[in-house]
Design a protein that fits this description.
The protein is α/β, with parallel strands linked by helices. Helix content is 29%, strand content 20%. It contains 19 helices and 26 strands. β24, α18 and β25 form a beta-alpha-beta unit. The N and C termini lie close together (10 Å).
Length: 655
């Protein structure tokens, strides 16, 4: 059995492997700092391969740099042994939902997720700190001291283990540098998450948009820049010494522009609020559009568009005019004689062919008339199906966004009784999801998720477009000021706000959906960043002598649960953390089944041959157990033989 790493991959090792695939002779071996052999790049040979393209030392070139940029790049590549611990009680529908809400510093969270979400995310939206000089600078990365020293530094954490934050004021000599270092390493990792046809949207304002553009040009490539949209953020307030700022930017990049589908826009999805109840189009969404439009000119080739339509009560309707059909019956027509003889949008032939798409109903008023011009309350409407509109639409969305101001966010949060300042409206994120044409199975991500807007928007999107898009929200547990409305409402940190907002929004969205919302996923699985589940001896057994090792009863920390262990194992086996997990008993032992039998794991003790045999007969792709799980040495001795007999292709792992 192979031993699990129980930590994220070193991104540098992955880069070395990529170079080895292209130039195998440029890769050699050397001894690392621990005296163990490792692969390394022979840069002299690599330089020879690229000799016409490599700049000489000191040669002038175009570049964007700042203090600690190299350290920020290295930080993005270094692995972490931190883990994400599930919180079943804080979750909604933990065992079935496909959505994730993750609490913790997004840098470490991204590192934990990178291996098993590599190239899987269709859309990323982030709304990072704008670096206005008034922001609480939440992410205090330090490149000069160890991670442990940073975490133990005075004032970094409070007595409850929650992070304290500092203000990144303009008086700080590293005002732009600190912000650039914080953003660079996170966006560098985020690129790895995107699918080849994926897109990232970043909200930003005047303070750093110029620097952010340069960072993204470097990380994604300037050729993958899709545009910088402007968004009206608030109504003009005439405040400001020069311009009164009332908009921000939406920087947009593709992972690979050549593979990125064209954006899609121009549809008001909420207006298609009716569902076809019968016939070949049963279940499709549509809206009603009046068959008579006053703007139609009857003298422009509309000779067959003035006719009677029969109403459910036996009466008849027709557009207003001076001349009427001589015979009063459904479809009886007359040729317009002047501009006063109005017409329907459809010809008589279309009406007869598509009567199943006509709805005649009574309202409080009507712009059509009855027989010989008599007043009526009836009117005729055509069904316009959303799928037909989508199929025909080719227009791209405008790069100036006017319909999603922040006031909408304030209004919707007030409706949910959630206090939070400076949120983006869910309509903006839903609009971006529409622009990207997200489909069932796609994943969207926000690693500065704030009040949980992405979760709210995605549930609305799934309801309105009958899709099953999955979301991942990541937020550091920034404390609420004790004088704030958020704290007075009982929210200790922003994560508590985000989770409660998604709970309340999900309930409201499902209620509004009625029968159409029965299968809507309004749940989310809460995971919390923490130190590894494993004791130090698991990673560095060579640093302990025989006596110390014998004194250790277990290599798993005493406060960690079997479910904790499972969720640290899943990323290493390239299993999404939203995968379906079930707990079952096999011969009296608790056994986890992930995606049916793709992964079977047990972390119980006293596991005997009969339990191993039952599991092997299920032929899982992966099987994982602890080395201390075996009831005795005979189990370990027979373990491999049992699997070779019943399931030789199962990959066996141990921790």
């Amino acid at each position: 059995m192979e031993k699990l790493r129980m930590k994220s991959l070193d991104a540098v090792e992955g880069n070395v492997a990529k170079i080895a695939a292209l130039f195998p002779h440029c890769v050699t071996e050397r001894l690392n700092k621990d005296g163990k052999p490792e692969l390394a790049i022979d840069f002299d040979k690599l330089r020879a391969e690229l000799s016409t393209d490599v700049l000489d030392t000191g040669e002038e070139r175009y570049q964007f740099t700042w203090p600690d940029k190299r350290a920020a790049s290295r930080l993005a590549n270094t692995p972490t042994d931190k883990t994400l611990r599930p919180d079943v009680d804080a979750s909604v529908d933990f065992w079935n939902t496909k959505n994730l809400y993750i609490e913790g510093d997004n840098l470490d969270v991204l590192k934990v997720l990178r291996e098993n979400y590599l190239g899987k995310v269709k859309m990323i939206y982030i709304d990072p700190p704008y670096n206005t000089g008034k922001d609480s600078f939440t992410y205090d990365d330090d490149f000069s001291i160890s991670e442990e020293e940073m975490e133990n530094r005075s004032g970094c954490y409070d007595s409850l283990g929650l992070l304290n934050f500092r203000l990144n004021a303009e008086a700080n000599g590293r005002f732009h540098t600190d912000w650039l270092n914080m953003m660079y390493c996170r966006i560098k990792i985020a690129r790895d998450f995107l699918r080849e046809d994926g897109t990232i949207f970043i909200s930003i304002d005047d303070n750093e948009v110029h620097n952010l553009r340069k960072i993204c040009d470097e990380i994604f490539g300037a050729n993958n820049f899709l545009g910088c949209a402007g968004r009206i953020s608030k109504k003009a307030n005439n405040q400001g010494d020069f311009w009164a700022p009332n908009f921000d930017y939406l920087l947009t990049y593709a992972k690979n522009k050549a593979l990125c589908p064209a954006f899609f826009g121009g549809i008001n999805y909420s207006s298609y609020n009716l569902i076809e109840e019968a016939g070949p189009r049963k279940g499709e969404r549509y809206q009603l559009v009046r068959l008579y439009m006053t703007s139609l000119d009857p003298m422009r080739g509309c000779t067959n568009q003035r006719y009677y339509i029969e109403c459910p009560d036996g009466s008849f309707i027709i557009p207003p005019g001076e001349i009427f059909p001589s015979e009063v019956k459904d479809g009886s027509s007359v040729i317009p004689q002047s501009g006063k003889d109005k017409v329907w949008r459809w010809s008589y032939q279309s009406y007869l062919a598509k009567k199943d798409q006509i709805v005649v109903k009574k309202g409080r008023s009507s712009n059509v008339v009855g027989v010989n011009g008599e007043p009526t309350l009836w009117n005729a409407f055509t069904k316009t199906y959303l799928n037909d509109v989508i199929e025909k639409l080719t227009a791209s969305p405008n790069s100036f966004i006017e319909d999603h101001i922040n006031q909408k966010a304030t209004h919707e949060l007030n409706q949910l009784d959630i206090p939070f300042s400076f949120a983006k409206p869910s309509s903006l994120l839903k609009y971006l999801e529409e622009v990207c044409r997200l489909e069932t199975g796609d994943i969207v991500m926000d690693f500065f998720s704030g009040s949980g807007t992405l979760g709210d928007a995605t549930m609305q999107y799934n309801r309105d477009l009958s899709q099953k898009v999955k979301f991942i929200c990541v937020q550091i547990p920034e404390k609420c000021d004790t004088d704030s409305d958020e704290y007075k409402a009982g929210f200790e940190n922003i994560c508590e706000i985000g989770k409660e907002r998604i709970r309340r929004a999900g309930k409201k969205i499902k209620e509004e959906a009625g029968l159409q919302g029965q299968d809507l996923d309004i749940g989310f699985r809460v995971l919390k960043l923490d130190s590894s589940n494993m004791e130090d001896v698991f990673y560095t057994p060579e640093e302990l002598d025989a006596g110390q090792i014998e004194g250790l009863i277990d290599n798993v920390k005493s406060d960690r649960t079997p479910l904790d262990l499972l969720f640290q194992v899943m990323p290493e086996l390239d299993i999404e953390l939203s995968a379906k997990v079930e707990e079952k008993e096999v011969n009296g032992k608790k056994v986890f089944f992930v995606d049916d039998t793709y992964l079977i794991a047990t972390f119980d003790t006293e596991v005997n041959e009969s339990t191993v045999t039952e599991i092997a007969k299920m032929r899982p792709q992966y099987f994982v157990m602890r080395d201390s799980s075996a009831a005795n040495d005979n189990v370990l001795d027979n373990f491999e033989q049992i699997f070779k007999h019943y399931s030789p292709d199962t990959i066996r792992k141990i921790l």
